[in-house]
Amino acid sequence: MGDLTMDFLRLMLMAAMLLTSVQGQAADQTAAPTAMPAPHEVEFLRSADKACTDCHKEQKEGMHGQHAKATNPNNLAPVTCTNCHGQPSLQHREGVKDVMRFSDSFNQPQGKDGYPIAEQNSVCMSCHEPKPLREALWAHDVHMTKLTCTSCHQLHPAKEPMVGIPAQSRIKLCVDCHSKQHEAIKAKTTAQDKEAP
Ligand code: HEC
Ligand code: HEC
Ligand code: HEC
Ligand code: HEC
Ligand code: HEC
């Protein structure tokens, strides 16, 4: 092996280094213009909800609280209106039963248009795992099939009523509803007693 071979190798090395630095510059040049359209991409993601908020002006601000910046664990995309409400049909504006309507099990008992508790709660459970729910409140388990999640939670208002609820208000919440329930059962049995011959 002579000096010539070494010179040749050195030359090749320099050429390779030059080439990569040129490529580096080229990459920088292409990177700069692509940085500009980025806001468009953000706009594109937002438009998933815009289709809804064009009509539903009250929801214009989108979600508050954690759902506003949450990632859907199923597709790793931001949480959208349709993740919870599903897809509207062509007759949506006429009020047909298409999108999911969440209700309060006590103040709005399932009417003819109401969705069953299991159907409502399964929307929430498509993202929420039972274990963290149990850790946040043991009573989540006992109510899973008995109450809609939205009997206690409200997701659209800026202030979620349950998050950070003081201990006393929490107890009052349980007692109020359970005594109402008691009265309802009592009223029912008294009515049945009266009906009995
Ligand atoms: C598309 C997925 C998804 C669906 C559907 C969903 N959630 Fe969530 N939710 C999340 C994520 C992600 C968070 C952030 C915290 C976490 O990971 O638990 C969150 C947070 C919350 C919080 C804390 C709120 C806050 O602002 O601090 C509550 C309460 C909650 N969800 C209740 C519900 C209820 C009730 C339903 C059904 C009506 C529901 N969620 C449906 C994904 C979802
Ligand atoms: C063209 C206008 C329009 C668009 C777009 C639209 N909606 Fe609606 N939506 C309506 C009207 C009108 C009603 C009221 C029907 C009724 O009173 O029962 C309604 C009802 C609803 C309800 C039930 C409200 C309630 O009081 O129970 C929900 C939830 C809902 N829409 C969600 C959505 C979501 C989510 C989207 C986007 C995927 C969407 N809508 C897109 C017009 C629209
Ligand atoms: C009986 C009322 C009640 C029902 C029904 C209920 N929750 Fe809760 N939830 C609470 C309370 C109280 C907390 C504790 C809030 C705190 O201490 O900050 C809580 C906490 C949570 C949290 C954690 C919020 C945080 O701090 O990040 C999530 C998520 C949640 N609930 C989701 C659900 C889902 C999903 C359902 C339906 C399957 C449901 N909840 C049903 C009362 C309820
Ligand atoms: C994480 C689940 C979730 C997401 C995401 C979500 N909603 Fe809702 N939506 C609910 C629940 C639960 C209710 C029942 C009222 C409440 O809890 O605030 C509701 C109620 C509604 C109603 C009826 C309003 C009323 O006052 O009864 C409309 C309309 C609606 N949502 C539209 C939307 C639109 C538009 C978006 C997207 C910007 C959206 N929702 C995103 C869960 C969700
Ligand atoms: C909105 C009404 C409501 C609220 C609020 C509520 N509960 Fe309940 N709870 C129910 C209903 C309905 C059942 C099912 C009763 C049945 O199966 O007859 C139930 C069942 C239970 C059970 C199972 C025992 C049984 O009788 O089946 C326990 C324990 C319980 N609730 C504790 C709690 C605690 C603790 C809280 C407060 C964090 C609470 N509840 C808040 C309505 C409520």
What's the layout of helices and strands?
Blueprint: H1 3-35, H2 38-53, H3 65-69, H4 81-85, H5 117-125, H6 130-136, H7 139-143, H8 167-195
Bound molecules: heme C (5 copies).
One heme C (HEC) is lined by residues 105-106, 139, 142-143, 146-147, 151-152, 170, 173-174, 177-178, 181.
Structure description:
With 197 residues, the chain is mostly helical. Helices cover 55% and strands 0% of the residues. The protein contains 8 helices and no strands. The longest helix has 33 residues, at 3-35. The radius of gyration is 29 Å and the shape is globular. The N and C termini lie far apart (118 Å). 5% of the residues are buried. Mean pLDDT is 79; it is low at 17-38 and 41-45. One heme C (HEC) binds at residues 65-67, 70-72, 79, 83-84, 102, 123-124, 126-128, 149-150, 153, 155, 160, 162-163.
Number of distinct beta strands = 0
Question: What is the N-to-C order of secondary-structure elements (H for helix, E for strand)?
Answer: HHHHHHHH
Strand portion: under 5%
Q: Which small molecules are bound?
A: heme C
> Helical residue percent?
55-70%
| Main beta sheet strand tally, sense and closure | none
* Rg over CA atoms: 29 Å
Nearest-integer average pLDDT: 79
Runs in which pLDDT lies below 50 for 5 or more consecutive residues are 17-38, 41-45
User: What is the straight-line distance between the termini?
Assistant: 118 Å
How does the overall form come out from the CA principal axes? Answer: globular
Supply the number of helical segments. 8
Which structural class fits the helix and strand makeup? mainly alpha
